[in-house]
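From the shared-data thread, chain only:
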Amino acid sequence: MQARWRRLFRDRRPTAPWVTIEPHRAEPQPVRAFRLFAILGAWLEGDVIGATVRNAIAQGCERVYLLDNDSPDDTVAAATAAGAVLARSYASASYDEYLRLALMNEIVREVSRREAAEHIWWLWLDADEFHHGPRGLTLREYLAALDRRFRVVGARVFNHFPHEKPEYLTGFHPLEFQPLCEEFSVEHCPLGHWKHPLQRFDRDGPELVSAIGFHRVEAPTTLYEPPSAIFMHHMQYRDETVTRRRLRLLCREDADGESRIALVDRRLRGSGISKRHGTLDAVYARRWSEVASLRRQGLDLGVSPRPWTQLVDPADATYARWYTVDDVAQARAAWAERRAGSLGAPARHTRS
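Structure, as tokens:
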């Protein structure tokens, strides 16, 4: 499968640059009718994946297709309870990004060809990624007004950090608990977009193939991207106990010195996963100068988190909720009561 995927990837590789930025037209010509689906890859994400699915649906996705890597927890149950469709499960001894991406591309291709729609926008995401449109729009509202030239949309990406307890409560948008972040921009996109999660299938157009991590898109034609981006919030650190367990299982070496992420570390010369695991103590102690930065190569240290609402225009500082503000307050209060009971102290909201 990996060899076949690599051939497919190579056959669709355009000449550099892989994407061209074009301005919006004064009178755009949008696609009149389209579907919006999501493809979601996951492993051991039961704490957050229900919220991931609900956020995608709140953003206008009609279906969320789940690819699960034999998660040893309730990831599949939580996702399907939130409305996802289990498209496929597979087992692997290690985290293999090439295999995962091949399967995700296959699911997108099979579903797209099976549907009667001429156009299908796909939202590609991991379980710790939460998207929304600009100016208070949902993704679907944003795409409905987008000129038909654009088949790829990039995202402004914000890596978020916990600053108090609770770091996260299951069922809610993580932005309720982690407003602090750093924006992450890269050079593989003229606009600095780390990921390009919106990709459109056209029945009569050249096929697109999503590349590693949904960072780029491969096609045998010129691809056009609009200057206006969507927003992606990367919620890599959640409840401290849950996060430590997950990263420990990913990075722990066996008797042969192999870990679950050893393969991707070798292929990609290190991964963000191993970098995050190496400085977890600093993350949860808020020693920001000692936290691994994903903005730079290698194990460079130092982040400077700021509230995400200070990094965007006021019109962009909003997102869809599938619950009320009172629901969040009640969940926080219940968490504080449980914490107080376990510590044998009066209930109060404490900082980590």
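The chain has a mean pLDDT of 90.
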